[in-house]
Every structure is written in structure tokens, then in C-alpha cells.
């Protein structure tokens, strides 16, 4: 008799009401795959893009990109995981909103003893993103201690990890967030300055804070609403690191604009390029595990929902009501 998994599925792109519970059969893992039983599941903004169709999926579709649990079965050729291992992942294909699943083993990492399931589920996608943003996204100059960077939506899941990690690296992170309370949270988590970008002109404040020089890097996951002003925050030869679209996609622009703003660089990064191989995934995860186990980065789980309440969780995330990381329990 085949195993069944309670799973969240969408039959078409749309609002949170499209997220429906179904029972799906789960088979044995094939070559390069594992079967994992989840203990906790992470909520991420990319799940909203998958649900709405900003990032289209074939229907019917399962969603969710992050979870932690126990390895139940291992397919041929998988050598880094064994049955019974505690493990966590950030990985395509979407489908982590479920009790158990079969998935590629490549992006699944063994969890160190010091890191629990909930922390694992709350940090893999967000923490590996903070890792590559701060350490692998500046091929041109390299960030040095003391450098000033601007990080939008800094009280969110990726944001609070980035605030703490940037401080541990000696960077001066200027945070933006949508309420004064969120700004305080960013400051309490290591940001050097915080700007409420819904009540203040953040580009003007950045120029004040940096003495008119501008920052070396802007990390922008907000997209449409912040794009143009973000360019005005950069010093000459600065880097615009676009990595998300919480307010909508960045509109098309003419490259000549980058010249007139001081020979700026622009990159649009995605985690999945950085974790394309087992070796790169493990190296980045080891870096993340070290700062989490070492206490330099604390994973702030500020919201917990039952997976059955997935619709409410999506509503709250889109309404900007969440802070830090959010997990689902089963
Ligand atoms: P967050 O917890 O940061 O939630 C998103 C935040 O964006 C909100 O809390 C809100 O904070 C801010 N925001 C600004 N404008 C809007 C808007 N119009 N609607 C909704 N939210 C808005 O989410 P995550 O930590 O999961 O992800 C953060 C961002 O990073 C997302 O854009 C995500 O897509 C991106 N990302 C990209 C990755 C990549 O590799 N490219 C990987 C992981 C995440 P506030 O109220 O303070 O403005």
C-alpha cells in the first residue's frame, strides 16, 4: 500500500483561497532522491509568487521551498544522507507544504545536533540567501569591514538574518522597514541605522547617514516601489543587488541610466544559481550552520501557524504583518 501525505495544492494561480488540502500518494525515492518526513516547514515570499503566478507553475501544483525533518528512505547514489538523519533544505521543486515528500537529495543537508527542526525550517532558504548576498554577490570589489550597505525590508525573514550577519562581518548595514517598530527590531538585530521607508524619503536619509557618499551595495527585494530611489543611494561604481519583487517586478530600464548615476553595476540574483551543486550547497550551509550554532545569528521565529492555516499565513505575509521568520507546524 502506498504512503499518503496531507499536502497543500493549488489548481490555479490566484489568492490565498486557492491553497487547498489534498491527500497525495508518496512513492519510494528514485536515484538521487530521498523521502523526508517533515517536522516543520518554512514560509517564504517566493511561495506567494508561486501561488499568484508571478513565477508560473504547471497545474495542479504544490508549493513551498523550505522544511526540516527526518530522512525516511534514500535512493540509489545518495551518499551524504542516511535513513534516520535529521535534515533541512531550501530547494526546488516547490512542494514543501506537506507531511512527507520525495525530492532531490542534492540540496538537502544534515542538520547539526545543535540546530532544532523549527530553526532548520526557518533558516535554510532565508539564511542561504543572506549568505550569498553578503559573501558571494560582490565579485567586483568585495565588501570590507566598515563598508556601508543598504538593506530593504530588513525586519523580514531574510532581513533579520542579514542584519545580524552583516554586523558579525563588521559591515554598517542601513536598514529600511515599513513601521517604526520594525525599524527598532532591525536596530536590535545589528543594523547600524534604520529608516521607515513608508514615512521618510529613504534616499535622502541614506545620503545624510553616509555624508553624501552613498552606499557600496543596495540589497533590494522590494522591487517596483524602491528600485528608482535605491539607485540614488549608491556611490559611484556601487552595486544594485536586486533579489526580489515583494511590491511587484522592477520595470524595464535603459542601461544608460546606470552611466548617468555613476557607472553603477546591477545584478539580479537568485539562490538557486548558488545552490546548483551539492558542493556549493553544503559549503554555504556549513557557513550558515556555523554562525547559527555559534550564536552570531539567531533565527527569529516570530510567527507559527498550523499548516492547515496556510491561507491565513499567506494573508498575513502579503499584508506585511509578519516579522522575522515564519514556520508551519503539522
Ligand atoms: P519577508 O519576511 O521579508 O516579507 C516581505 C517584506 O517585504 C514585508 O514584510 C514588507 O516589509 C516588505 N514589503 C515591501 N513592500 C511590500 C509589498 N507591497 N507587499 C508585501 N511586502 C512588502 O519575506 P522573505 O524573508 O521570505 O523574503 C524577502 C524578500 O527576499 C522577498 O522579496 C523574496 O522574494 C526575496 N528572496 C529572494 C531570494 C533570491 O534568491 N532571489 C531568496 C529568498 C528571498 P516592510 O513592511 O518592512 O516593508
UniProtKB/TrEMBL annotation:
Keywords: NADP, Oxidoreductase. GO terms for cellular component: cytosol. It holds the Pfam family ADH_N. GO terms for molecular function: mRNA 3'-UTR AU-rich region binding; NADPH binding; quinone reductase (NADPH) activity; zinc ion binding. InterPro entries: ADH-like_C, ADH-like_N, ER, GroES-like_sf, NAD(P)-bd_dom_sf, QOR-like, Quin_OxRdtase/zeta-crystal_CS. Residues 14-328 form the Enoyl reductase (ER) domain. The keyword 4Fe-4S does not apply. It comes from the Bacteria. NCBIfam families: PRK10754.1. This is Alcohol dehydrogenase, zinc-binding domain protein. It comes from Verminephrobacter eiseniae (strain EF01-2).
Amino acid at each position: 500500500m502506498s504512503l499518503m501525505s496531507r499536502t497543500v495544492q493549488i489548481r490555479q494561480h490566484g489568492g490565498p483561497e486557492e491553497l487547498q488540502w489534498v491527500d497525495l500518494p508518496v512513492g519510494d525515492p528514485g536515484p538521487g532522491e530521498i523521502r523526508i518526513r517533515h517536522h516543520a516547514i518554512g514560509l517564504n515570499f517566493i511561495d506567494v509568487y508561486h501561488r499568484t503566478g508571478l513565477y508560473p507553475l504547471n497545474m495542479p501544483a504544490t508549493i513551498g521551498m523550505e522544511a526540516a525533518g527526518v530522512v525516511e528512505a534514500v535512493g540509489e547514489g545518495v551518499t551524504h544522507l542516511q535513513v534516520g538523519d535529521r535534515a533541512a533544505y531550501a530547494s526546488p521543486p516547490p512542494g514543501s507544504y506537506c507531511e512527507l515528500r520525495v525530492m532531490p537529495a542534492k540540496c538537502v543537508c544534515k542538520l547539526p545536533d545543535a540546530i532544532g527542526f523549527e530553526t532548520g525550517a526557518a533558516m535554510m532558504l532565508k539564511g542561504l540567501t543572506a549568505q550569498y548576498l553578503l559573501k558571494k554577490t560582490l565579485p567586483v570589489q568585495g565588501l570590507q569591514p566598515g563598508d556601508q550597505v543598504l538593506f530593504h525590508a530588513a525586519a523580514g525573514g531574510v532581513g533579520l538574518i542579514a542584519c545580524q550577519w552583516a554586523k558579525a562581518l563588521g559591515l554598517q548595514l542601513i536598514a529600511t522597514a515599513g513601521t517604526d517598530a520594525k525599524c527598532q527590531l532591525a536596530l536590535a538585530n545589528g543594523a547600524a541605522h534604520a529608516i521607515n521607508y513608508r514615512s521618510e524619503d529613504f534616499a535622502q536619509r541614506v545620503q545624510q547617514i553616509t555624508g553624501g557618499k552613498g552606499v557600496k551595495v543596495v540589497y533590494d527585494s522590494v522591487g517596483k516601489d524602491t528600485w528608482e530611489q535605491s539607485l540614488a543611494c549608491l556611490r559611484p561604481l556601487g552595486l544594485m543587488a536586486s533579489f526580489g519583487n515583494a511590491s511587484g517586478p522592477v520595470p524595464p530600464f535603459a542601461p544608460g541610466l546606470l552611466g548617468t548615476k555613476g557607472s553603477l553595476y546591477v545584478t539580479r540574483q537568485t539562490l538557486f544559481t548558488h545552490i546548483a551543486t551539492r558542493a556549493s550547497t553544503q559549503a554555504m550551509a556549513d557557513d550558515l550552520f556555523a554562525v547559527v550554532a555559534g550564536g552570531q545569528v539567531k533565527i527569529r521565529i516570530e510567527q507559527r501557524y498550523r499548516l492547515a492555516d496556510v491561507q491565513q499565513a499567506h494573508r498575513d505575509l502579503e499584508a506585511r504583518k509578519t516579522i522575522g521568520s515564519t514556520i508551519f507546524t503539522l
